[in-house]
């Protein structure tokens, strides 16, 4: 017994820490785009930090409950109701058989994470429950959830109430400053191009999904006559295409690529990218001093 999906939202999948150790076979890591929010939801219901959760993008879901259980929501902020009444999602939500839960208007952020106490009753593939939709692998039948799906809970239980720390709640930002490191092909670019790359603001285009984000910014000049063989690609790699545009690899990205990588986002910062909207500015900086990006931006402008 578990939950019956009435409305699944735009793109709702089962995700966890990811599927590591398979890149040599061309299998992306997958996993939660915002690991910190997923871990927060799991903490609230007493699960292990890497337990599988539901990841929802832009729109939430609606379901009825077939068993008494507890759940928690973290990441993007939604207006939610239980049996038609608006509820507080800053604390554990206890459900009874027959309860009707619905996520309404998105308030801020992009991706939300829903954890159930006791976890899901699913089969791991390659040591992970994460869904890789492009390969039909893992999660629930290897795809995003649909209306009518019944997602079974492994050990449904009701847990003591726990409140989400206010400092961990997602807050709206118009500017995001993301720590990165020089990419493998960093030295192939001229100093002027590097100053530009680390001084200008980027915005997400509408072409942004779990495989990657195509960014909008002034074109970056690629090295003349440059050629490289395809090589390893990790989430957070910023690739520069021949026309000077940039693509940021994300969790479901292919494991190899042939475009020069001017920078790679610090892995501890990737969760921030998962919540960025198309009207918000993104800056990248190298090192530990965020003030450097201000100087770079001033020089570029």
Q: How are the secondary structure elements laid out?
A:
Layout: E1 2-7, E2 12-15, H1 35-44, E3 53-57, E4 62-65, E5 69-82, E6 85-86, E7 93-95, E8 100-116, E9 150-152, E10 175-182, H2 191-199, E11 203-208, E12 212-216, E13 231-232, E14 237-240, E15 246-249, E16 256-257, E17 261-265, H3 270-273, E18 281-286, H4 291-300
Parallel strand pairs: 10-18
Antiparallel strand pairs: 1-4, 1-9, 2-3, 3-8, 4-8, 5-6, 5-7, 5-8, 10-17, 11-12, 12-15, 13-16, 14-15, 14-17
Helix pairs in contact: 2-4
Mean pLDDT: 93
Structural class: mainly beta
Count of helical segments?
A: 4
How big is the Rg? 20 Å
Distance between the termini: 59 Å
Shape: elongated
| Content of β-strand | 25-35%
Unreliable runs: 293-301
Order of helices and strands: EEHEEEEEEEEHEEEEEEEHEH
Number of strands: 18
Proportion of helical residues: 10-25%
Quaternary status of these chains? single chain
Largest sheet: 9 strands, antiparallel
Give your account of this protein's structure.
There is one protein chain. With 301 residues, the protein is mostly beta strands. The protein has helices at residues 35-44, 191-199, 270-273, 291-300; strands at 2-7, 12-15, 53-57, 62-65, 69-82, 85-86, 93-95, 100-116, 150-152, 175-182, 203-208, 212-216, 231-232, 237-240, 246-249, 256-257, 261-265, 281-286. The strands form three sheets. Strands 1, 2, 3, 4, 5, 6, 7, 8 and 9 form a nine-stranded antiparallel sheet that branches. The protein has a seven-stranded mixed sheet with strand order 11-12-15-14-17-10-18. Strands 13-16 form a two-stranded antiparallel sheet. Strand 11 (203-208) and strand 12 (212-216) form a beta hairpin. It is elongated, with a radius of gyration of 20 Å. It starts with a strand and ends with a helix. The model is unreliable at 293-301 (pLDDT under 50).
């Amino acid at each position: 017994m578990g939950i019956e999906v009435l409305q699944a939202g735009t793109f709702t999948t089962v995700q966890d820490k990811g599927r590591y150790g398979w890149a040599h076979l061309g299998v992306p890591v997958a996993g939660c785009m915002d690991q910190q929010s997923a871990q927060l939801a799991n903490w609230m219901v007493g699960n292990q930090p890497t337990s599988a959760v539901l990841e929802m993008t832009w729109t939430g879901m609606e379901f009825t409950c077939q068993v008494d259980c507890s759940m928690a929501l973290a990441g993007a902020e939604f207006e939610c109701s239980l049996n038609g009444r608006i509820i507080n999602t800053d604390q554990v939500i206890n459900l009874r058989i027959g309860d009707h839960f619905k996520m309404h208007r998105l308030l801020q952020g992009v991706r939300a994470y829903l954890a159930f106490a006791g976890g899901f009753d699913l089969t791991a593939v390659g040591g992970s429950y994460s869904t890789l939709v492009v390969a039909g692998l893992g999660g629930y039948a290897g795809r995003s959830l649909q209306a009518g799906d019944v997602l079974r809970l492994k050990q449904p239980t009701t847990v003591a109430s726990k409140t989400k720390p206010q400092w961990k709640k997602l807050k709206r930002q118009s500017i995001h400053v993301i720590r990165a490191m020089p990419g493998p092909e960093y030295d192939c670019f001229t100093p002027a191009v590097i100053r530009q790359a680390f001084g200008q603001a980027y915005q997400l285009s509408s072409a942004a999904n779990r495989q990657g984000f195509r960014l909008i910014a002034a074109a970056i000049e690629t090295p003349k006559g440059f050629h490289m063989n395809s090589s390893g690609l990790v989430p957070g790699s910023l690739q520069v295409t021949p026309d000077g545009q940039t693509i940021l690899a994300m969790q479901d990205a292919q494991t190899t690529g042939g475009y020069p990588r001017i920078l790679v986002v610090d892995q501890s910062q990737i969760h921030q990218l998962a919540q960025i909207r198309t009207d918000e500015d993104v800056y990248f900086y190298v090192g530990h001093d965020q003030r450097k990006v201000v100087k770079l931006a001033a020089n570029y402008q």
